[in-house]
Design goal:
This protein is α/β, with parallel strands linked by helices and 296 residues long. The protein is built from ten helices and eight strands. The chain has a six-stranded mixed sheet. Strands 1-2 form a two-stranded antiparallel sheet.
């Protein structure tokens, strides 16, 4: 048969497979959730399409004709292959969770905690991607995203994770070298990393500092907190950082936050995923776990 030759209707083939396996219109109807009349109709359609009877309709029993005997095992084998393929796909699909997130959130917040998720859900392997671009869930193999924003995206459900609040941080050695940072003006005694970052404008406005101190001409631009924090820890200057992302570094004494005051961004970090997939087991498991990780 040429691959372009049309198959008989799949519904009729499915009914034939069940009826041939059970040798009963009644039992096939029950298995398929159909009426006995609907089963008989589908068999009649298939027999007309093939031009040969498939069953011998005896008074107290149903038997396969020679044509039916030839087709039945091959049809059952084909359906078993399909069942196996879809079962394997379902297992594979549920075994991997793809999280598309932002670099700093991945490195500083999610990665240190991910081991706890794996302990609770050993059957789910997390594949993490880092990017800031928009994700098209209809075209890309991504289950959930973590993004900065207002949490309102068409067609997506969202869960707030971390508010974006920032404050200057630096190495304790650098702070000590200038006699400590006791007032906000003392910040001007040390180099400011990423001075082009608009967060500095907000910090300077809120604390009445002169923006002329932001030496932006020919200043290196990083705009990635993990790298800026690394420079700060090495004594290169003060960086505006989100404290929740650097709890380990603060606890270890590699970074200090000399001021209790914080500036707030208009955005927060959110977990987001398609509204229609909110009850997919692996997505629900990740959402429930990460909700438990959020500090009140």
């Amino acid at each position: 048969m040429d691959m372009t030759d049309p198959l008989p209707p799949l519904a009729a083939i499915r009914v034939f497979e069940a009826t041939a396996r059970l040798l009963s219109f009644t039992q096939a109807a029950a298995e398929l959730g159909m009426t006995q009349a609907a089963v008989s109709y589908q068999i009649k359609l298939l027999e007309e399409r093939l031009g040969a009877p498939l069953f011998l309709r005896r008074p107290r029993a149903l038997a396969l004709t020679e044509a039916g005997q030839w087709l039945a095992p091959r049809t059952t084998e084909a359906f078993e292959l399909l069942r196996d393929a879809y079962s394997r796909f379902s297992e594979r699909e549920q075994a991997t969770l793809t999280v598309n997130t932002m670099h700093t959130f991945a490195a500083q917040w999610l990665s240190p905690r991910l081991g706890r998720f794996q302990l609770q859900h050993p059957g789910i392997a997390v594949r993490m991607e880092t990017t800031t671009r928009l994700v098209d869930f209809a075209r890309e193999e991504v289950d959930v995203v973590i993004r900065s924003g207002k949490g309102k995206w068409d067609g997506l459900a969202s869960l707030k994770l971390v508010d974006v609040r920032f404050t200057p941080m630096l190495s304790p050695e650098l702070a000590k070298s200038v006699g400590g940072l006791k007032t906000h003006a003392d910040l001007l005694k040390v180099p400011l990393l990423d001075p082009i970052d608009p967060w500095w404008d907000r910090w300077f406005d809120e604390h009445q500092l002169p923006k002329s101190a932001l030496k932006r001409e020919n200043a290196p631009t990083i705009l990635l907190q993990t790298i800026t924090a690394s420079v700060a820890m090495s004594g290169g200057g003060a960086a505006l950082l989100i404290p929740e992302f650097f709890e380990l570094e603060i606890a270890a004494g590699r970074l200090i936050a000399p001021y209790e005051t914080m500036s707030e961004s208009d955005n927060s970090y959110w977990l987001a995923y398609p509204e229609g997939r909110r009850n997919v087991p692996k997505i629900k498991a990740f959402r429930d776990w990460i909700a438990g990780e959020i500090k009140p």
